[in-house]
Amino acid sequence: MGTRRDGPAPLEIVVPAYNEADRLPAGLGLLCDKLAGLPVGAEVVVVDNASTDGTAEIVRSWRGPVRVRLLRCERRGKGAAVRAGLLATRAPYIGFMDADMATDLAALDDALVLLREGRPVVVGSRRHGRSVVEGYALPVRRLGAITFNRIVRDLAGGVPDTQCGFKFFAGPLGRAAAADLRTTGFSFDVELLSHCVRRGAPVTDIPVVWRDRPGSTFSVRRHSLQCLFDLARIRARAGFRTHAPSAGPAPAGYATAGHAVAGPGASAGHVPGPLALPDSTLPSTSGAGPG
Questions:
Q1: How far apart are CA 185 and CA 270, in angstroms?
Q2: Cα dist. 215→137, 212, 286 in Å?
Q3: Do residues 73 and 55 make contact, with C-beta atoms less than 8 angstroms apart?
Q4: What are the beta bridge partners of residue 132?
Q5: Where are the domains of the chain?
Q6: What residues have CB less than 8 Å from 120, skipping those under 6 apart?
Q7: 63-91, pLDDT tens digit by residue?
Q8: Region entry Disordered: which residue ranges (predicted)?
Q9: pLDDT tens across 225-256, in order?
Q10: Distance in angstroms (rounded) separating the CA atoms of residues 104 and 132
């Protein structure tokens, strides 16, 4: 499982996996090779979401240049798996990615630069003006995704794509948001981002190269109605918090930078201190693409 360290690596990446025995080896290979080349120590947490195939055994037997550890989540649902994974991290920078690595891993460089600059939430967006999207599924799914994101933009910090499986956070903020997460299905991204926004954290979207991969477990026919129910619950909870007493201070250890978007319950003007890491641990800020 790679070299063990006495403490947490500066970066931990969660990979939720439900019956991913076919796609996981290639995905982990790409991710570990990328992380091994970064100037910052990294670890991977694969969350086996009650798989019935050989997903867990692949992780247990994995050997590579970075540490990969296995976490079992018996509660079904991608949201449940991501929540369990994020809460199991200890690193100052955390995030999650899909097992198929549909988002090109070059985006990690820009994400790390922006996190180092104090951006508390950095997400990949297929609808960014500089993104390259290849083979984006069926037209009905594309239209549904556009409609979905227009409905939820006010909850998720104004980003035009809430569902890209590439999201990174300042560690304390990400864990606090995950602790509040209640949505277990495919709409969990919206709730997770809304918990960040209501803590006063702006969301920065970055361009990505994204390639559609076969084998997605999401089905427009089977999951759309549940997504609508989930969104109604998320919006109802966000509305309640808007009129509730102060949600309390934002988690220590992250800074807001760029354009803050005030969402439900957000504390306007709150700017916590920056996360302190040595400059030598992360790439330089030259060439970083703005969100």
A1: 31
A2: 11, 10, 37
A3: no
A4: 209
A5: 11-243
A6: 169, 170, 173, 196, 201, 202, 254, 255, 256
A7: 999 999 999 999 999 999 999 999 999 99
A8: 261-291
A9: 666 677 777 777 776 444 333 333 344 443 33
A10: 10
Contact call for residues 230 and 79 (beta carbons, < 8 A): no
* N-term to C-term CA, the chain: 34
Q: Whole-prediction pTM value?
A: 0.76
Structure tokens at 63: 């050997």
CA distance 220 to 224: 5
**Residue 100 corresponds to which tokens in the numbers above?**
């198929």
The C-alpha atoms of residue 18 and residue 47 are separated, in whole angstroms, by 8
Which structure tokens are listed for 255?
């800074």
HEC letters along the chain: CCCCCCCCCCEEEEEEECCCCCCHHHHHHHHHHHHHCCCCCEEEEEEECCCCCCHHHHHHCCCCCCEEEEEECCCCCHHHHHHHHHHCCCCCEEEEECCCCCECCCHHHHHHHHHHCCCCEEEEECCCCCCEEECCCCHHHHHHHHHHHHHHCCCCCCCCCCCCCEEEEEHHHHHHHHHCCCCCCCCHHHHHHHHHHCCCCCEEEEECEEECCCCCCCCHHHHHHHHHHHHHHHHHHHHHHHHCCCCCCCCCCCCCCCCCCCCCCCCCCCCCCCCCCCHHHCCCCCCCCCC
Q: Which two tokens stand for residue 28?
A: 């982990």
Question: Which residue is associated with the tokens 């955390």?
Answer: 94
pLDDT digits (tens, 9 = 90+) for 130-165: 999 987 655 555 655 666 666 676 777 788 899 899
